[in-house]
């Protein structure tokens, strides 16, 4: 019974734990475990982009209708991030959401199996909707967890490193697709049979991973912990009620616009190169997409390197600006020139999503879990913008001309990048967190090395019972 009590899936958000001041060394294991999740949804997302073109070929559907895959996948995100996953996160904790999301992912993968076998596009969209709920649940918990698990000053770097493995997953999936889905023999039935085995393997893996999360002891991070961090950084984070957290809602808007543009470009990348580049079939287009996703992954590692010496908000502004600069020529250019513009666009897209998450959560304090749901809900842009691009492409009979759609959404997202760099109400909380000494080894006030037992991340000191501190009474420590 003691074994299972230590793995309790419920923790009170009113109790402060050592997780508020984890050092880099203490956070390595939970971060590595959660980073596996980033690879999983990168792989799933990469499969979706390849299947988009595959269903156009095998089922004879239009570009606009094929975007139903993206609509089902990303349309599930608000349901998870603002609904069931966020409720579990706020009432139980991060680990239960990880397990819940993995189980939904596995169920969706199993449902996809018969749908692929019977070539049912509608049924497969339903399976993708279940998978989207699972991945939306994982993102609702994993993105904020990576951001808050460890010293606050390294939050942007941590989430970009973890998201880089998401990029690795998006590279692996199109490579697999080029050899499995787009067969040179043209045997579509065999191709679909191969796809079903991929989803069966995914289901088995995620169910095993859910068990690993259950038996692993990882620190829970409560609202009280986040209130403590906000107080220690003096970011004035908790002034005003939740509905007045305007920086959060602007970040969610930027996430909606940016993610919609990113997903639209990736979803129709194969269409773009097959239409604009001579002697390029779908199989070769999938290989080019893998190369573009490789540029995306490389951009994340490069961005992390830049963030070591340059403030993350400046790196974010530069990268998003370059997305606008390079996607614009792809509208009029053709051949290798147009494709190279999209390669560069994907390279500079790399740090935008995770950095919006990290910056948008700065200073939310006790609203961190609730606020993270709104930012992740912005991923639903991926359900709205691709159908719009597909409709324009069908209307103009040109995917290249339709690239004006993601350009417009990049410009809308750019408004947040400008504000977080030049508006003091946005800029100051970000800067105060980036210089915080919380969780830095040798700094004062650290409780991370105290001798303590743990149940779901909640501290129980020997002889004192449970240490409970309300979010509004986080202790003061010596200022550095």
Report strand order across the widest sheet. Answer: 1-2-3
Q: How would you classify the helix and strand content by structural class? A: mainly alpha
- The overall pLDDT average reads 79
Number of helices: 19
CATH homologous superfamily label: MFS general substrate transporter like domains
CATH topology: Growth Hormone, Chain: A
Low-confidence stretches: 442-480
CATH architecture: Up-down Bundle
* Count of the separate structural domains: 1
What coarse outline follows from CA principal-axis ratios? globular
- Specify the biggest β-sheet: 3 strands, antiparallel
User: End-to-end span in angstroms?
Assistant: 43 Å
Spell the H/E element sequence: HHHHHHHHHHHHHHHHHHHEEE
The counted number of beta strands is 3
Overall helicity: over 70%
Which band does the percent of strand residues land in? under 5%
Radius of gyration from CA coordinates: 22 Å
CATH C-level category: Mainly Alpha
């Amino acid at each position: 019974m003691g074994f299972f009590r230590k793995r309790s899936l419920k923790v009170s958000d009113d109790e402060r734990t050592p997780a508020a001041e984890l050092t880099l060394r203490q956070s390595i294991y939970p971060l590595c475990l959660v980073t596996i999740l980033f690879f999983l949804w990168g792989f799933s997302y990469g499969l979706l982009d390849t299947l988009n073109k595959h269903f156009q070929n095998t089922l004879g559907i239009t570009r606009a209708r094929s975007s139903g895959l993206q609509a089902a996948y990303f349309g599930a995100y608000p349901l998870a991030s603002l609904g069931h996953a966020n409720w579990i996160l706020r009432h139980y904790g991060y680990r239960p959401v990880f397990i819940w999301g993995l189980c939904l992912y596995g169920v969706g993968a199993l449902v996809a199996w018969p749908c692929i076998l019977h070539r049912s596009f509608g049924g497969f969209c339903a399976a993708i909707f279940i998978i989207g709920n699972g991945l939306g649940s994982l993102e609702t918990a994993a993105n904020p967890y990576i951001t808050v698990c460890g010293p606050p000053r390294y939050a942007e770097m941590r989430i970009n490193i973890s998201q880089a493995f998401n990029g690795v997953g998006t590279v692996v999936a199109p490579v697999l697709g080029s050899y499995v889905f787009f067969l040179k023999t043209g045997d579509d039935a065999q191709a679909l049979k191969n796809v079903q085995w991929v989803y069966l393997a995914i289901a088995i893996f995620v169910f095993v991973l859910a068990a690993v999360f259950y038996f692993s002891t990882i620190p829970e991070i409560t609202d009280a912990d986040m209130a403590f961090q906000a107080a220690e950084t003096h970011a004035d984070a908790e002034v005003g009620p939740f509905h007045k957290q305007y920086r959060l809602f602007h970040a969610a808007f930027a996430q909606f616009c940016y993610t919609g543009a990113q997903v639209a470009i990736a979803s129709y990348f194969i269409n773009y190169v097959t239409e604009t580049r001579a002697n390029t079939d779908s199989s070769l287009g999938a290989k080019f997409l893998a190369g573009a996703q490789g540029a995306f992954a490389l951009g994340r590692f490069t961005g992390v390197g830049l963030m070591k010496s340059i403030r993350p908000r400046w790196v974010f502004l530069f990268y998003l600006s370059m997305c606008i600069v390079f996607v614009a020529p792809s509208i009029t250019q053709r051949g290798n020139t147009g494709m190279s513009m999209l390669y560069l666009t994907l390279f500079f897209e790399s740090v935008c999503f995770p950095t919006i998450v990290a910056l948008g959560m700065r200073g939310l304090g006790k609203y961190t879990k609730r606020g993270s749901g709104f930012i992740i809900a912005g991923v639903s842009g991926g359900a709205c913008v691709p159908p719009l691009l597909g409709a324009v492409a069908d209307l103009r009979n040109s995917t290249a001309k339709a690239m004006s759609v993601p350009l417009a959404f990049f410009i809308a997202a750019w408004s947040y990048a400008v504000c977080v760099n030049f508006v003091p109400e946005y800029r100051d909380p970000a800067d105060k967190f980036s210089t915080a000494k919380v969780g830095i080894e040798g700094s004062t006030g650290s409780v991370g090395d105290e001798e303590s037992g743990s149940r779901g991340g909640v501290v129980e000191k020997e002889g004192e019972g449970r240490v409970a501190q309300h979010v509004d009474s986080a202790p003061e420590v010596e200022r550095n």
